[in-house]
Amino acid sequence: MASLQGPRAPLEFGGPLGTAALLLLLPATMFHLLLVARSGPARLLGPPPYLPGLEVLWSPRALLLLLTWLGLQAALYLLPARKVAEGQELKDKSRLCYPINGFQALVLTALLVGLGVSVGLPLGALPEMLLPLAFAATITTFIFSFLLYMKAQVAPASALAPGGNSGNLIYDFFLGRELNPRICSFDFKYFCELRPGLIGWVFINLALLVQEAEQRGSPSLAMWLVNGFQLLYVGDALWHEEAVLTTMDITHDGFGFMLAFGDLAWVPFTYSLQAQFLLYHPQPLGLPMAAVICLINAIGYYIFRGANSQKNTFRKNPSDPSVSGLETIPTATGRQLLVSGWWGMVRHPNYLGDLIMALAWSLPCGVSHLLPYFYVLYFTALLVHREARDERQCLQKYGRAWHEYCRRVPYRILPYIY
Ligand SMILES: NC(=O)C1=CN([C@@H]2O[C@H](COP(=O)(O)OP(=O)(O)OC[C@H]3O[C@@H](n4cnc5c(N)ncnc54)[C@H](OP(=O)(O)O)[C@@H]3O)[C@@H](O)[C@H]2O)C=CC1
Ligand SMILES: CC(C)CCC[C@@H](C)[C@H]1CC=C2C3=C(CC[C@@]21C)[C@@]1(C)CC[C@H](O)C[C@@H]1CC3
Predict the structure, then answer these.
(1) Is the CB of 390 under 6 A from ligand 1?
(2) How many degrees, rounded to 5, is the angle at CA 80 between CA 196 and CA 207?
(3) 293 partner at 20 to 30 Å CA-CA among 11, 39, 53, 67?
(4) Helices (DSSP H) in 317-366: which residue ranges?
(5) Pairwise CA distance, residues 144 & 327, whole Å
(6) SS3 160
(7) Helix 287-316 vs helix 349-362: angle between axes, to the nearest 10 degrees?
(8) 70/73 Cα distance (integer angstroms)
């Protein structure tokens, strides 16, 4: 039986009040963005054009489509994997196993969707279903998070996350109580983090591109760029799927509403905002500007991938020739911290690259509206907050060595600024 972990873990996200507000604010923001993206003025900060009634939001067809999608991704997750990776060591010293077949799931989904389209599946009709789909996803994640909360009631104390077990129902529901909820070998958090939402995002983008082609004869250059950049991002995440096993989402955070809603609703319906905006507000984009934007995305990707790969290689094998020459700081845990290379430039070079890419995804939408830049603003806030959480965890893990790292590398994300 689960026992509460008591008041040891400091409350995050503004405690019970903050998380109660987020429970309402996150879905409200998602619906606001969906409504505003298709409205004429497309004002991020203005009121939504109308408040949709239940007859607009509720559609059994959308719910069926969503459940079919989740079922398909779950089936692909269960297919034989090219590799089975071990996660980080748990409290009870055991390690869980995870299938590495996310990229395979992306390719197989593409083949299945391609096959569907060739026999008449109307992919271009998807944009019209985004509101009811987002509503179905929201309801589903509320129910799912409730089931996860109930499941944690009967989980052993060793299976609980360090946060998310304060005893406050709303706070724990939001953060998530159990660290790695599973049924047999099916890991819900790992599955949701990388599959239905990320792959769904790519196919929503594609449907918006197809719809634009149907409406205007061909997709715009801006739409191609947004689709290409975001496909690269998702493909990269799935190709390097194993790296997600060391993120705080997997190693530290419980699985509750925050991640369930984030993964299954927030990512597909708000991360596709630029493509949604472009369908309803076509933007002219010349070749020279497109080339500049491609260059910005390439620079961002180069930093993002370089930094992530350098750290992952170093953590797997510090004597790998590509990282063995880098300067390091020893820590009391036996692990070392990189203090040169990408991780000597700022303390989160991967966030910097990610933010540069975020800018490149918005630039094809022009500068007439603030709406497509929502992702840049939200993502900056998310990464600044995430960086602060990670610093707290690293300080706890590495103590004086972390102080030394901060002294040697004083900037967090943006050199000489932050
Ligand atoms: N698109 C999106 O919505 C989001 C994207 N991301 C992206 O996901 C990726 C993963 O991000 P995230 O999980 O936040 O964290 P990171 O990949 O930045 O990992 C942080 C961890 O790296 C290790 N570390 C930190 N500094 C050093 C160092 N100098 N040398 C060696 N190891 C170090 C520490 O763990 P340890 O020492 O235990 O190894 C630390 O806890 C990033 O590229 C991020 O941009 C993240 C969130 C949302
Ligand atoms: C809705 C909330 C405010 C926050 C939800 C956060 C989630 C959307 C993100 C938490 C960590 C994420 C990661 C990724 C996607 C977004 C979420 C799920 C990646 C999979 C994106 C691709 C990267 O290469 C790896 C990321 C790991 C963390």
Answers:
(1) yes
(2) 30
(3) 39
(4) 349-362
(5) 45
(6) strand
(7) 160
(8) 5
Is-contact 98 87, C-beta < 8 A? yes
Which residue bears the tokens 């026992």? 3
Alpha-carbon gap, residue 106 to 209, rounded angstroms? 18
Residue 338 — φ and ψ, nearest 5°?
-70, 140
What radius of gyration, in Å, describes the C-alpha atoms of the chain?
22
Q: Is residue 308 within 6 Å of ligand 1 at its C-beta? A: yes
What are the sequence ranges of the domains in the chain?
8-86+97-282, 286-418
CB-ligand 1 contact for 354 (6 Å cutoff): yes
What distance in angstroms lies between residue 15's CA and the mean position of ligand 2's atoms? 21
Question: In this predicted structure, what is the pLDDT of residue 338?
Answer: 96
- The burial class, CB within 10 Å (0-12 / 13-18 / 19+), for 43 is middle
Q: How far apart are alpha carbons 245 and 243 in whole angstroms?
A: 5
| In 100-192, beta strands by DSSP E | 182-183, 186-187
Confidence class for position 4, pLDDT limits 50, 70, 90: very low
Nearby residues of 74 by Cβ (< 8 Å), 6 or more positions away: 186, 191
Ligand with the closest atom to the CA of 22: 2
Angstrom distance (rounded) from CA 51 to CA 28: 11
Q: 264 and 137 in contact (C-beta within 8 Å)?
A: yes
Enumerate the H helices of 78-129 as residue ranges. 102-118
Non-local CB neighbours of 172 within 8 Å, separated by 6+ positions: 149, 164, 165, 166, 254, 256
CA–CA separation, 158 and 181 (whole Å)? 12
Residue from 133, 172, 124 nearest 11 by CA: 172
Ligand nearest to the CA of 351: 1
266-321, pLDDT tens digit by residue? 999 999 999 999 999 999 999 999 999 999 999 999 999 999 999 999 998 999 99
Q: Is the ipTM of this complex over 0.95?
A: yes
**Strand partners of residue 84:** 99
CA distances from 402 to 324, 339, 414 (A): 20, 11, 19
In the block, tokens 């049924």 appear at 183
Max Cα–Cα distance, the chain, nearest Å: 63
Q: Assess whether the C-beta atom of 359 lies below 6 angstroms from ligand 1.
A: no
Q: Is the dihedral of CA 378, 251, 404, 330 positive or negative?
A: negative
Report the distance separating Cα 195 and Cα 211, nearest Å.
Answer: 24
